[in-house]
Every structure is written in structure tokens, then in C-alpha cells.
User: What shape does this take?
Amino acid sequence: MSAWQKYKDKNGSTPLDLLNPKSERATDELAAERLEVCKACPDVIPVVNQCKRCGCFMDLKTKLKISKCPIGKW
Assistant: This one.
């Protein structure tokens, strides 16, 4: 299995999924709930809302329906 596939399996999506207009988006409510969980997580860099585990910017990642937290918080 490629490193890219391992990343996608762990995170549910990749940053490129944000550019795909066919990628299903999470509801605004779900994205906001996810982001609040991330903001309280010690693995997120607060200034940029970037996850130390997966490297994603959580303001964007939380908006994809298929995304998931790398440590299972959502």
C-alpha cells in the first residue's frame, strides 16, 4: 500500500479532496462541531488550526463529510 493510500485510510480524505467539486461537504453544523473539538485538542496548533498528527488545516478538513480525526475524536 502506498503512503498516500495509508494517509487517506487514516484520515478519510486528502487535501486534494477539497478541490474536487464532487466531494461531499459536511453540513455547516457538523463542520462547526468538529472544529470546536479540534480547537480544544492539544494536537492542534492554535494560530493556524493545523493538526500536528495529520498536518491538515482543520478549518478546511472539517468541511469534508468523509474526513475523520486521525486520533478518533470525530
Remarks:
- Residues 24-74 form one domain.
- The mean pLDDT is 89.
- The first helix runs from residue 3 to 11.
- Strands lie at 44-45, 50-51.
